[in-house]
Amino acid sequence: MSSMSSTPMGRMEQESSRGGSATIGKAVKIAGQIFSREDLYVDGDVEGTIELMDHKLTIGPNGKVHAGVKAREVVALGVIQGNVEASERIEIRKDAKLVGDIKTARIVIEDGAYFKGSIDIVKTEPKAAPSQPRPQPAAAAPAAPATAAAGVAEGKR
Amino acid sequence: MSDRLKIFWRGPGSPAQAEPPAYGGSLPRFAPRPAHRTLLETRQSRGLEQFFASFRGQTGLSILDLGGACQDNINFVTNLGHRFYSEDFLRIFQETFSEDVADQSNPGRIDYFLRQSLDYPDNQFDGVLAWDVLEYMEPALLAAAADRLFRVLKPEGYLLAFFRSDDRAETAPCYSFRIQDLKTLQVSQQGERAFSKHLFNNRTLEKLFQKFQSVKFFLTRDRLREVIVRK
Description:
By secondary structure, chain A is an all-beta fold. Chain A has two domains: 2-124, no CATH class; 127-157, no CATH class. Chain A has strands at 2-4, 21-24, 28-36, 39-42, 45-51, 56-59, 64-76, 79-81, 84-92, 97-99, 102-104, 107-109, 114-121, 147-155. A six-stranded parallel barrel of chain A has the order 7-8-10-13-11-9. Chain B has 231 residues and is α/β, with parallel strands linked by helices. In chain B, 42% of the residues are buried. Mean pLDDT of chain B is 80; it is low at 1-33. The chains are: A mainly beta (157), B alpha/beta (231). Chain A binds chain B through residues 92, 94, 107-121, and chain B through 34-37, 62, 68-71, 74, 78, 83-88, 91. β13 of chain A pairs antiparallel with β3 (83-86) of chain B.
């Protein structure tokens, strides 16, 4: 798992250690934009935007997200205030609180969860198999960091 | 609580004959809604049937559920191709007014509450599922809420609301309503809540919804009034 430490934004880098997932710990506060190409677990405070392309975002029980969220899958155990787009599914657990509009293919909401907003169910078309193999690039592009945060990160004391 | 109220919703021989959960001698006026729920019964609802019959053949409508989000209702409404909006009206009501009944006549507090719970543009919704949330309110707040609901409904939009027996008790079980199909509701109990002393009979309900184009009542055997109003 990767972990984001409470370092300034420019030096924030993930440390790949456990199975392609990054963590924002509960003592971490981030203001800005987060883009990730791996799963992300947020147990701290995030203000801004979170984009996880084809990955899973989990908001832990201590997590407080005031942000627009885009991910393949979103699991909320904490607080989300902002619009959420989950291309595959969103799960709102019983003690979670979500205020915002949801666009997703599937929603699971437990009794006791608080939700205020709208739900748009978007039926996803199954991806068609490519008819021809895609040409391989001549040279591999340099690997980019899987998770990048632009903004300000600070540790809570 | 009268015997009639105790058997209210349940009917003879229904599985849940147990007393509602005890809160000891100091029941708060608005007990917090517990996450757990006790299934009381599955019942037919003419009001629900009429409500969705009004939208037959249409998709892409905006339906507001004031009972808080639950999986069954989300699935049902979105499977019909509509957009589902959720408000936990009673939770906001409880947070705003707590135990202070007098506050429900305070214009500032009423305005604050409606901004928290029904802050939508005029003519936003094709339908509103209000369930029984209106019957816990005192008259001034109730009138203001009915007025706001009128505004947020589109012309020709429908609202479904339930009002229980004319009998008034200090407290009564708090219910949640889950749609099983076009005319079937699953009713569960989630703690207790204080009732308004306001009586809801046909006349008072017609007065409450006087701005609307029509008010239709379905009186059930257990003296529940299911009300469909059309803007």
